[in-house]
What we know:
Layout: E1 12-13, E2 22-32, E3 38-48, E4 57-60, E5 65-71, E6 74-75, E7 82-84, E8 87-90, E9 96-105, E10 115-119, E11 122-126, E12 145-155, E13 161-164, E14 167-175, E15 178-184, E16 189-190, E17 196-199, E18 202-209, E19 215-222, H1 231-248, E20 256-262, E21 269-270, E22 275-279, H2 292-307, E23 316-317, H3 323-342, H4 345-367, E24 379-380, H5 389-422, E25 426-427, H6 429-440, H7 449-452, E26 458-466, E27 471-479, E28 494-501, E29 524-528, E30 532-537, E31 545-548, E32 557-559, H8 564-573, H9 577-600, H10 609-620, H11 626-633, H12 638-642, H13 650-678, H14 689-705, H15 711-723, H16 727-739, H17 744-760, H18 765-776, H19 783-790, H20 800-813, H21 815-818, H22 824-839, H23 841-848, H24 859-873, H25 880-890
Zinc ion (ZN) binds at residues 304, 308, 327, 330.
Amino acid sequence: MRNDTASKPETIFRKDYIAPGFWVDTVEMGFDLDLSATHVATRMTMRRNHDSSEKDLVLFGESLKLLQLRMNGVNLKKSAYKIEGETLRIANAPDEVTLEIETRINPLKNTSLSGLYASNGNFITQCEAEGFRKITWFPDRPDVMAKYTVMLRADKKKFPVLLSNGNLIEEGDLGDGRHFAKWEDPFKKPSYLFALVAGKLVCQEENYKLKSGREVLLQVWVEDGNLDKTQHAMDSLKNSIRWDEERFGLELDLDRFMIVATGDFNMGAMENKGLNIFNTKYVLANPSIATDVDYAGIESVVGHEYFHNWTGNRVTCRDWFQLSLKEGLTVFRDQEFSADLVGTATGRAVKRIEDVRLLRQVQFSEDAGPMAHPVRPDSFVEINNFYTVTIYEKGSEVVRMYYTLLGHDGFRKGMDLYFERHDGQAVECDDFRAAMADSSGRDLTQFERWYSQAGTPRVKVDAIYDAEAQTYSITLSQSCPATPGQTEKLPFHIPVAMGLLGADGKDIPLHSVAYEAQAGATSLVLELTEASQTFVFTGVSSKPVPSLLRNFSAPVVLEIDYSDEELGLLLANDSDPFNRWEAGQRLATRRLVKLTTAVQQGEELSLDGMFIEALRATLNDASLDPAFRELVLTLPSEAMIAEEFKVVDPQAIHTARQFARATITEHLRADLLSAYEGHLTPGKYSPDAQSMAKRGLKNLALSYLLEWSDESTFELAKTQFDDAENMTDRLAALTALTNFSGTDKQAKSAAKSLKAFYKDFKKEALVIDKWFMLQATARTTDVAKIRDLMEHPAFTLNNPNRARSLTFAFCNANPSRFHAVDGSGYALWAELVIALNKLNPQVAARLARSMDRWKKYPESLQVHMKAALQKVADTKKLSKDVLEVVSKALA
Length: 891
Ligand code: PHE
Ligand code: ZN
């Protein structure tokens, strides 16, 4: 057992919020940069906040060597302040204070990648959420906003480039081989948006003209040798700037905007004011190293960070419980950005389907597990554990519901009012809701429950057709399962977009007394606000097929009994492309669940003709966007199938899904082959939506074709691998080859390709990540193989991308192997979490989450899982991050 209560970390509650005792107006910082001993001098002017009940002057600090502390020019004696843990308190401070603080820090030893750290000989900072306190003592909380001036000094040879937020106002030599650069950020900001970068970097730069005519300087900074991989990030940045002007009327407020790529980063990227810092994964791309998925990821993350400049930076969060205020809104904005860039209606739907797939697979699962929390949490132990799919993706769904309820123009009005009211402030989720309510005149009181109640609501559908009265009545009943700390839930305000299809598959004009103003429309947004409500449609001349929750209008589970025939009709005809896809997924899920049960009971497996023919029809329908066809043809993932069961049997699910894939291939071989041949994209690689869609369908066809052991398809993949002119095709072929089960000779040939791939891309870290990931998720890769790969000279736990590529991929994306019946996967997991805990608590805690749903597995596995969790929980010097995750799992 863990020793005692003394080591039990403190829980922080939203209800305990107290405004800061002192505001900070200006911050001047001087850095003498040295990899193992950086000296930081900070001078800040502070003023008492008379409205706060906090009378002390409170600063936070972590892992700092405090060299000096002066208040209003006087050195403070040890007795004049009190340090307890991360808190430094000065009692009886005057109302106006100038604090001067000197600290020394060791970036080289900072493996947490939070605060100031070294990456490949360069200096990088990461201050969100609470990293600034690892640089200096400071009121490190987002509601304290100040203007910063930053002086950087360093060796000129080793650190020729010196960057910080805002504008460069002075630079020059200091003699003795050192130089300096002085930066000034004209906007006040919270400390979590502070950044500096220093080192050997090169940049692609461009002058860009804003709509207003003002010229700005855009830069993408990378390590030497990567300048051939920055064009897509630069294009994405320009698209982002233009989009925010056009869609939201928001202009870039600085004269210079910089992106820096680093190979050592805990997350995707960070929106520091004017100096975004990115994981290389979301910057570097050229056709030979990056896939279509990478290109799309870069576009959306560059957009995301840029959009934060208004939603996050200009208007920020009052406290970290409000994190979704900036993250949910900014995800919504980046999703809309990507959708608008594609432009077409099906392109938008494809993007929507991809986003919903992620939400369901990861967020619904989080919402059903021990870490479930509301979009605006009530408590946390470690804020870093709350950068979750609930805060981001569900948060975005909540914003999208305003959009659905208020309409395009109504939503824009709400956004305008939000900025008009709160520019330059640190605010709460409720302020955003108030702006939406006040600008539209709508009562959004009940809508607040989306922020306060965790769990995924379920909406049950009962429908009755009255032929005589020609009415169709839909009864919607909502409920929400209990989540940790919340047993009772009140009804949500749920927008349910819907339509009715006639027997011909066409939309029926809708007439409902409750929605008179929209009489005759073919799509309506019903508003479900009570536990149960009935909506009656009149003038319905024959029994319709309902299409509900169109475009996934709310983050709920829709429980509805469709017949196969009805689903077939929806799949073939629904005017809402999201629900067309959804119908196909329902058909597939139903079958995969049945197959899984059959596997468990040792029954013979079979797949019916109706389903296969529906897939064939979709695959061959040239009028459909290939990207849409690819989505329909992609079976629900093993994780999604698992959600259908009370008790999860990963091996049975895997067997069932593989059987389905092989059977589909058996029947659709000719169709798949012509889909393959019909969607080649010869010539120069281009990451446009159309070419991506073609490659996507072609490579899906390839992966199916290789489910059927056969010489010619193996050769097809081999040829594609050898001749590929881009990473998308090369990686797809290699994945198919690696997962192919054929003759020994073929296995040898596949292994040879894998080797060649490594050799060809040895110098490209992001490609070697793919090489590890591909093997981590291969069907034949077991725990022993992972241990082998961990011994590979290119593997290290020190780099988050590399650690994730092998170990996270295995624990999260290879369920039938990770959940090996002997528990060896869990033992490996425990070892990894413990090892990572010492290096990087944030990354360790992420991996710890792989065990969240352990209570969903059979007893025989639970025993091993519990032991592994307990082993981690019993580890000495466990970080708050990991401790919170494992103790919640064990609770
Ligand atoms: N705020 C970043 C984003 O969403 C994510 C992030 C959080 C990055 C914490 C680093 C550390 O864009
Ligand atoms: Zn963000």
